[in-house]
Amino acid sequence: MFLKNILKKEYYYNFWNKNNQEWKKRNNYEQGPPNLDEIFINFFKKVNRIFNFKPIKKFNNGKFLILLIVVCIAIWFFSGFYTIKEAERGLILRLGKFDHIVYPGLNWKPTFIDKLITINVESVKELAASGIMLTADENVVRVEMNVQYKITNPKLYLFSVVNADDSLKQATDSALREVIGKYDMDRILTEGRTLIRSDTYQSIENTIRPYNMGITLLDVNFQTARPPEEVKEAFDDAIAARENEQQYIREAEAYANEVQPHAYGQAQRILEEGRSYSIKKILTAQGEVLRFNKLLLEYKLFPKITKKRLYLDTLEKIFGNTKKILLGNTNCSNILLSLNKIFDIDHHMNNCKNSYPNNRINKVNIK
Length: 367
Hints:
The chain is built from eleven helices and ten strands. It has 367 residues and is α+β, with helices and mostly antiparallel strands.
């Protein structure tokens, strides 16, 4: 019934129009302020008529005020219930001053006295820092860095500094400029990225520690570093030349690693051959000395026999190492034959006998 009457434009118009006319009459004929009791009584009478309640014949002002107070207290009490999620922590401000921390679950607070502020302590926040910075060799480089952090103490996060996120951003910018200023541009653009990342992380940690901001750094990602657009082509050429240099160095090292073991092995072989030759000569000389000492004793005892023996041994060595032999004769004295013709000696001697039958030919015996 109530919804039907509300939806009717005529009822809506008549209701408020009649109300406005009563207020106009009251303003025209009464000079004092409106009576609050009368206003509430008229309001509840209209509500009763809308909901088809029985008409109120008598209304006690005292009971009405008590009922109104009870209703207001009930509304105030039930409006104080709230829920904290699992990933959140609630901070209660009582009359503007921090009172306590509320944990996940259903809780209650006195409305208009306590104020609730919820902080997510499990989500990972990100902070981006970038800018054009000066290097140690007085070059300019554009760098970008991303900082990941998490709130671990909500009370310190809200009340230790005015704005913890802004303070962390300022600390990150300062630390990044300090670290970039310690390295030259070539190192920043090439192999120094990991070192810059660790130094920046340590510098940020040292900066925010005295402020107790309730923040824990998780990671610092050094995203990119590049020269300004005005000199980008020159730096690209320099980087290409550096890469070619490294390539040539690696090729030379590979060739050295291939040749060096072979040369080392050959050197070791020559050294071993030299050592063996030295040992051989020393042992041979020592053996010759021992043999000479024995011959010396024999020579002292039997000088003629020993001298003849030495002579024969010497001839044997000489003819044993030569490839040619000499045939002595008055007419065939200059005939030289190679050892490979040794089996033709008899044939040659027979020819000499046939040519000179009266001559005597002596054959040297070769062992």
